[in-house]
Specification:
The protein is α+β, with helices and mostly antiparallel strands and 185 residues long. It has 5 helices and 7 strands. It has a 4-stranded antiparallel sheet. The relative contact order is 0.12.
Length: 185
């Protein structure tokens, strides 16, 4: 009887611990903006128009060369379109590749610093870059390029990093280098 009661208590404790664990939820999912390719789109568009105009004036079969800038535009568009970010409450995923896909993951509790950069050109489109520094050996620095609403995303990442560190009971330690010794402070 006591053994049966002990088993029920053990199962209840396990179920309680399982229900306490949060499920990994998606905070944000998206890709880089095509604004990154704006200069390429404009310059290759001009090259296309010039090639077509010259081929009409001088040598009509040269119009076939006009396809080269269009193919270049398509490839650049496809590369940016296939770079995807997924930020969850536990990790950041970065997937690249057109035919073969590669996905990298970084644990949020390893993130040491989150910075936001808003270059002028991207600010015009309400975009920005978010830079993450981490203690991860393979991905020490990670850049989320041209993401919408970067300030909101940066705050979401920062809050998730702190929450994840609390769950894992992890804290970062900064070590002073030679130039920043205690005597120099």
């Amino acid at each position: 009887m006591i053994l049966l009661f002990s088993i029920f208590v053990f199962i209840a404790i396990l179920q309680n611990n399982m229900s306490d664990k949060q499920q990994e939820e998606v905070i944000w999912e998206g890709s880089q903006s095509q604004v990154l390719n704006f200069g390429i789109f404009i310059s290759m568009g001009i090259v296309f128009v010039v090639v077509m105009a010259l081929s009409l004036l001088f040598f009509l079969p040269a119009a076939v060369l006009g396809i080269i800038p269009l193919v270049y535009i398509f490839v650049k568009w496809l590369v940016v379109k296939n770079q995807k970010y997924k930020i969850t409450t536990e990790r950041i995923f970065y997937t690249t590749g057109i035919f073969s896909k590669k996905t990298e993951a970084m644990e949020l509790y390893r993130v040491k610093d989150v910075d936001m950069y808003e270059p002028f050109w991207q600010r015009m489109f309400k975009l920005g870059n978010i830079s993450l520094s981490s203690s991860d050996q393979t991905t020490a620095n990670f850049l989320l390029k041209a993401v919408p609403k970067p300030a909101e995303l940066m705050n979401s990442i920062r809050k998730s990093v702190e929450t994840r560190r609390d769950v894992k009971r992890v804290r970062g330690i900064e070590v002073l280098g030679d130039e920043e010794s205690i005597e120099n402070l």
